[in-house]
Amino acid sequence: MKFNKNLIISLSTAATLSLGLSACMENVMPDSNTNTPKVASIDGGVSYPVKDGMTGPYHVNPQVAKDAKHIFNGRVPTKKEYDAWNTDIMPDGTGLPEGQGTADEGSDIYDAKCTMCHGDFGSGGGGYPALAKGNAYDLHKTLTNQRIKPDTDGPVRVFGTYWPQVSTLYWYIKDAMPHPDTGTLTDDQVYALVAFILEQNEIKINGVEVDDDYVLNRKRFLEIKMPNRDGFEPNIDGPHGRDNVRKYFSNPANFGAQKYNLKDVKSRCMHNCQETTAKVVYIKNGGIHDFHPPMSDVRNLPAKKASTGGFDAKKAYTESCAMCHGADGMGAPVVGDKAAWAVYTAKGMNKVYHNGINGINGMPPKGGSDLSDANFKSVVDYMINNSK
């Protein structure tokens, strides 16, 4: 039996899935041939421990095994360490604290701590993701869009349209935002930010659309049903989540694979496995010319626009840099503090420019802005030389 190309790709996909899921280890069972313990994952795959320099039937590089043992053999964390790390927020409300906040309050927090990366009203910018694009219920319908024509609209994947659970948003903000000052928001502030983002996505809770004055608290939070709640498979939520995953991956047709008997060595194909009926189509005459509209034959680079001299460094600083280099500082040298900046300028301005343009110590390149190198340098000059 020969394999076609699609089947080979499907087997590779299945292998990747098996490797990725092997970390979700479930129980230990003996191998019928060697009696070596092997760990079964939720998708039915197994992994073998290293024993006598081998893992299953395969030899192990002893140096790699030694290094891995050094890396992974740690100590049991203390209860305080574990509790500090175990702060996940689950869809059923596990881990979700009491608190409340309004979208109006969240708007002020967002403007102060989020807009420089995620744009006005969550529109995105500077390489950071958009959080909203309009009515999530209407835009959720675009997830089935495919760009089969040049002018076809693709799917809109933002928080409101794509994320199945709002609990993930609360958890991410609480543990990872704002960059680079994580862990500084109170529970009420996180509720307010979530309410603001829900408002921008025009999300409804029990038929009531979240507006400026809507008070989001723990009770109402748990009543939110996102438009894409049931948009993923398999269903991993609830007490039957693991069983759902096992059942899903037991049927290869669910993820584009086929069943394959590994004991049947003769059926394997490693050379010339493509079906002979496959048709190969070549581009004639050096390429495609029938474009609509026709492509231009002009190959000149666009002309450089002359500088008008109207760049406002102070305005750019306020929009992109004030969060970290403003009055609060967040550990970064603040605007006009020449003593603090002297530590950096002592290495030369070229070094200061280089670090700012490329990013350093948690600061994203150019502070997450889309400024040109020349304009960014002007902003740096403003921050160093402006008097308090």
Structural key phrases:
mainly alpha, 388 residues, Cytochrome Bc1 Complex, Chain D, domain 2, 16 helices, disordered N terminus
Brief digest:
Helices cover 36% and strands 7% of the residues. With 388 residues, the protein is mainly alpha-helical.
Structural class of the helix and strand makeup?
Answer: mainly alpha
What is the 3D form? globular
Count up the helices: 16
The top-level CATH class of one domain is: Mainly Alpha
Task: State the CATH superfamily name of one domain.
Answer: Cytochrome c-like domain
Number of strands: 10
Roughly what percent helix?
25-40%
Verbal overview:
It is a single chain. The protein has 388 residues and is mainly alpha-helical. Among the domains are: 5-72, no CATH class; 100-221, Cytochrome c-like domain (Cytochrome Bc1 Complex, Chain D, domain 2); 313-385, Cytochrome Bc1 Complex, Chain D, domain 2. Helix content is 36%, strand content 7%. It has helices at residues 5-21, 62-72, 79-85, 103-113, 115-118, 136-140, 159-162, 167-176, 187-200, 218-221, 241-249, 313-320, 322-325, 338-345, 349-358, 373-385, and strands spanning 25-30, 37-41, 46-47, 50-51, 54-55, 58-59, 100-102, 204-205, 208-209, 215-217. The chain has a three-stranded antiparallel beta sheet with strand order 1-2-3, with no helix packed on it. Strands 4-5-6 form a three-stranded antiparallel beta sheet, with no helix packed on it. The chain has a two-stranded antiparallel sheet with strand order 7-10. A hairpin with a 2-residue loop joins strand 4 (50-51) and strand 5 (54-55). The chain is globular. The model is unreliable at 1-35 (pLDDT under 50).
